[in-house]
Amino acid sequence: ANGVRFYHEKVINHFEKPRNVGSFPKNEKGVGTGLVGAPACGDVMKLQIKVDDDTGKIVDVKFKTFGCGSAIASSSFMTERVRGLTLEQAGQIKNTEIAKELSLPPVKLHCSMLAEDAIKSAIKDYKSKRVAAAATTVPSG
Ligand code: FES
Ligand code: FES
């Protein structure tokens, strides 16, 4: 019963007071956006990272999740987890870690998978934008 209580408090805390909800302004620099859906239920998660180009570290994170409480809690948890990490470190976070931290039941595993997919997709987006920016940089003069 202790475990159940703990589970509820931790998930409910991230559910009732989700951290870092929102999105960055359209032209904000250094932002990567991940938008993913869960085939199992149709829920959608958008997660954005803001990266310091020099250090390669994630300095800010925002999310919007249209989904169940576990998906919201997972994304809220993820935003706190990846702040300050390098892209490589952030890309290695597994949904099983989130599920364990939030004590999600097996039926809610796919909700935490959304958060893993979303951060990976955001990292990929950031990297592809960097490549695109480098390719379109025309030397002046
Ligand atoms: Fe729709 Fe999870 S099944 S909120
Ligand atoms: Fe589908 Fe939670 S994301 S039920």
TrEMBL record:
A molecular function (GO) term: 2 iron, 2 sulfur cluster binding
One cellular component term from this protein's GO annotations in UniProt: mitochondrial matrix
Record keywords, A-Z: 2Fe-2S, Iron, Iron-sulfur, Metal-binding, Mitochondrion, Transit peptide
Biological processes per GO annotation: iron-sulfur cluster assembly
Source taxon at top rank: Eukaryota
Span of domain NIF system FeS cluster assembly NifU N-terminal: 7-131
Pathway(s) where this gene product acts: Cofactor biosynthesis; iron-sulfur cluster biosynthesis
UniProt keyword Iron, yes or no: yes
Cofactor: [2Fe-2S] cluster
Subcellular location as annotated: Mitochondrion matrix
Membership in a protein family: Belongs to the NifU family.
Protein purpose: Scaffold protein for the de novo synthesis of iron-sulfur (Fe-S) clusters within mitochondria, which is required for maturation of both mitochondrial and cytoplasmic [2Fe-2S] and [4Fe-4S] proteins.
Name used for this protein in its record: Iron-sulfur cluster assembly protein
Organism of origin: Phascolomyces articulosus
Upper taxonomic lineage: Eukaryota, Fungi, Fungi incertae sedis, Mucoromycota, Mucoromycotina
